[in-house]
């Protein structure tokens, strides 16, 4: 377990987030009003989101957006996070590749999600909002937002995907310990929840459904805004602190990554680690590969369609330009609950469409093989979501070995798995299986998509 | 949740552990052979412990003991740990006191236990040992030793107190993920386990019983040593990295603690944070208070007897001079499993006897009140064990407020509670109770003690 950490000081925490849209030649397509099919303005988003967040969402011009002092102060609770050279993993793989990971698991809630949670709670608080709502898959985002809501004195209701609510009771308890109210979704507390429970009795939930419920509650509650942990442009923006720090740390290590890898659910940790590196590809033509690792059971980037779609199951959100499996797609119950989302965010979808990045799909068992190896060689038990990035990094390292080439690999360890131990139990007991999407299921789920593009 | 962290660099990780015994006027009484009642030599301990550890155990002369490079390298995985000014907690308490905590929860296994686990595994490996055994209460020590065993390529069997095995399945899974074998204690795999199950069918276990089982297995296995996570002098020694770092960090903060507080099970995190500060009281007469916070249900320091006693339930260990409740004491099933031990280590017992430190007892509900307040003001969910230190710190802060005096309080946050969420669930549901030891139970448990001193 020999290791090498590259550490920054508090003063090195970035003072601005990086807005990649300013550097994109082809901008992401705009979100559309579902009725009129007209592009939305920030004002259209004000009922749902804090104004500053709505403005960030559609900002195509400012490359750097200043991080408010109040947010940066709270980042100091755990940032800058370490960059680690994974000597133990390299040795076990007997690879000529150099493997680095950015360790976002050291945050007080155990994942990168706090980077955006604090920003969103801050902007809500700043404009006088009292209540916020959100959804959560595996519970990482919900835990982070509970922490952030407590830090800024906001009330919070979290709709937690039912399968995760049951599989991950500890994350529910963490949210409650920070003072949040947690509701298993689908619930009877919203029209959207009642509808899907009527149509699909016993439905175990999905992020799409939970979003519908959280949006509905926010719209019907006075002085209340909705917040989202991924997918949207402003979330990607806040997460860029990861990659901005990692850039400096790779410089300290005297290397530059040939490939940057992250797991992919809606895109938040992926964008966070990769956009600051991608910047140099966009602006200087730097030769670097960016790889999203998604689960084989929810392969929107590798097998989905580039099309306008709703962000939620009930169709409450604007239409977003996404690589999508269709908003009514019901993913298999894999343990990487944070990756069970039908679509990719607008920016990432544009980048993928323009071949500025790649995607690979990872089978559940391969992700756990990678997780166990990583735990035993690097001493950190990774979240099932992050394990997809590790699996992809291991594939890259194997290719390097095959080709006998040195290759510098950087991946994001988005979170630890200390609260996901039941999944590990099932893995070691041989009770886990792979869930691949058949071509038939795929064409069925895509057939419902309205052809707008 | 405003905060201020005091951070050291890797080069500031101590290069030597502090051996307080060298500075004690009254040395701890020696361990005795139970048959002959004669003091033990290091050689007497060689069958059970690695030689270097046996030598450290009885070392009364060397003030500083060099930390092996291999161990210090592994410390770099997470050390130095932050010292944090708890502004949020201070504000909630409206106290003139300044409260600081040393955050040992940032280790990859979530507690301070890794400081000694790595040292013990290293010395075992160094002398060619292949297998090690140990016991664990709440699972913090077991998790740390599993990590350390994996780091040094040793096989490990852990006897885990049955009540914790059931209450804290995640910690069991963590040990298994790192490759350790975990057995619920009492088990049928040892003579000691069979005996107590025969005498007390359905017995839920104690650290004393688990130690007996681990010692028995080590004695009967070729090329195998036993390791312990607390109580013994060499464990206290390894933990002093905590206080040595904290001293430097308090200096950075421009303050010196009036009182240093830690929770108390066998004494490992307590000794770790306090001995380096106590040094200045012993050698320069510095005015500083040292406070151990133990559970009211297991009050060896506040209500136990200073006497020779066995370290384990079956009487396999040497006789140790301890504040003890008797080695057959069966503590109530509180959630702070790591504090459910009948005795205090030799050094701490001597210090307590000589009034060089104090002890307070904390009721279970008070510890959880403190934990919830800390989580909501500082953003870290503490382990139930560590919550006893927080409760004691809150008491000190309340006294400071009463007296209208500024007071500088330092406590050790020995671990996080992310894997103890069922305990929090029970607390929030109102299902937890206090367990105080009645005078009758106390005199009964003490009556079995042989009067040697």
Oligomer: homodimer
Largest interface: A-B, 38 and 38 residues
Q: Strands of the largest sheet of chain A, in order across it?
A: 1-4-5-15-10-11-14
Structural class of chain A: alpha/beta
* End-to-end separation of chain A: 51 Å
What is the class of the domain at 4-12 and 67-110 and 234-451 in chain A in the CATH system?
Alpha Beta
Net shape of chain A? globular
Unreliable residue stretches of chain A: none
CATH architecture of the domain at 4-12 and 67-110 and 234-451 in chain A: 3-Layer(aba) Sandwich
What does this structure look like?
- 2 copies of one chain form a homodimer.
- Chain A has a domain at 4-12 and 67-110 and 234-451: Rossmann fold (3-Layer(aba) Sandwich).
- The model of chain A has no long low-confidence stretch (mean pLDDT 95).
- In chain A, strand 12 (305-310) and strand 13 form a beta hairpin.
- Chain A is an alpha/beta fold and 453 residues long.
- Chain A has 19 helices and 15 strands.
- In chain A, the strands form 4 sheets. In chain A, strands 1-4-5-15-10-11-14 form a 7-stranded mixed beta sheet, with helices on both faces. In chain A, strands 8-7-6-9 form a 4-stranded parallel beta sheet, with helices on both faces.
- Chain A has helices at residues 42-45, 51-57, 69-75, 87-93, 114-126, 140-152, 162-167, 169-177, 191-199, 207-219, 233-239, 241-253, 268-284, 300-303, 346-353, 364-378, 384-403, 421-428, 439-447; strands at 4-6, 16-18, 64-66, 83-85, 98-103, 131-136, 155-161, 181-185, 224-226, 259-263, 289-295, 305-310, 319-324, 358-362, 408-413.
- The first copy, chain A, is globular, with a radius of gyration of 20 Å.
- Chain A binds chain B through residues 1-3, 5, 7, 9-10, 73-74, 76-77, 106, 108, 110, 147, 150-151, 169-170, 173-174, 176-179, 372, 375-376, 379-381, 418-419, 421-422, 424-425, 428, and chain B through 1-3, 5, 7, 9-10, 73-74, 76-77, 106, 108, 110, 147, 150-151, 169-170, 173-174, 176-179, 372, 375-376, 379-381, 418-419, 421-422, 424-425, 428.
């Amino acid at each position: 377990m020999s290791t090498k950490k590259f550490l920054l000081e508090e003063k090195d925490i970035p003072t601005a987030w990086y807005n990649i849209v300013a550097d994109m030649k082809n901008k992401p397509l705009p979100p559309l009003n579902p009725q009129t099919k007209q592009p939305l303005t920030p004002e259209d988003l004000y009922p749902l989101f804090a104004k500053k967040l709505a403005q960030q969402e559609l900002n195509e011009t400012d490359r750097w957006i200043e991080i408010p002092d109040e947010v940066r102060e709270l980042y100091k609770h755990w940032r800058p996070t370490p960059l680690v050279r994974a000597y133990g993993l390299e040795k076990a793989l007997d690879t000529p590749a150099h493997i680095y990971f950015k360790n976002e698991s050291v945050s007080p809630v155990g994942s990168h999600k706090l980077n955006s949670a604090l920003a969103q709670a801050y902007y809500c608080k700043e404009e006088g909002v009292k209540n916020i709502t959100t959804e959560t898959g595996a519970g990482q985002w919900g835990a982070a937002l509970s922490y952030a809501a407590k830090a800024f004195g906001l009330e919070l209701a979290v709709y937690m995907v039912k399968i995760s609510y049951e599989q991950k009771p500890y994350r529910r308890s963490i949210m409650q310990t920070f003072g949040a109210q947690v509701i298993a979704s689908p619930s009877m507390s919203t029209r959207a929840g009642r509808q899907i429970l009527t149509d699909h009795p016993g439905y175990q939930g999905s992020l799409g459904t939970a979003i519908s419920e959280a949006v509905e509650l926010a719209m019907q509650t006075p002085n209340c805004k909705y917040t989202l942990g991924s997918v949207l442009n402003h979330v990607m923006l806040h997460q860029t602190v990861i990659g901005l720090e990692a850039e400096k740390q790779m410089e300290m290590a005297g290397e530059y990554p040939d490939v940057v890898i992250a797991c992919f659910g809606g895109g938040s940790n992926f964008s966070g680690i990769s956009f600051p590196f991608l910047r140099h590809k966009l602006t200087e033509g730097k030769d670097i590969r960016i790889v999203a690792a998604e689960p084989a059971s929810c392969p929107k980037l590798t097998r989905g369609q580039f099309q306008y779609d709703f962000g939620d199951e009930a169709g409450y959100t604007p239409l977003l330009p996404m690589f999508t499996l269709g908003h009514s797609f019901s993913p298999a119950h894999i343990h990487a609950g944070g990756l069970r989302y039908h679509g990719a965010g607008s920016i990432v979808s544009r980048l993928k469409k323009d071949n500025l990045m790649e995607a690979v799909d990872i089978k559940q068992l391969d992700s756990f093989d990678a997780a166990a190896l990583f735990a035993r060689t690097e001493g950190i038990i990774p979240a099932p979501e992050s394990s997809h990035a590790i699996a992809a990094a291991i594939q890259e390292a194997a290719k390097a070995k095959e080709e006998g080439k040195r290759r510098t690999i950087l991946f994001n360890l988005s979170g630890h798995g200390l609260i996901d131990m039941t999944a590990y139990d099932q893995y070691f007991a041989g009770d886990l299986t792979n869930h691949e999407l058949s071509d038939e299921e795929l064409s069925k789920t895509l057939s419902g998509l309205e052809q707008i593009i």
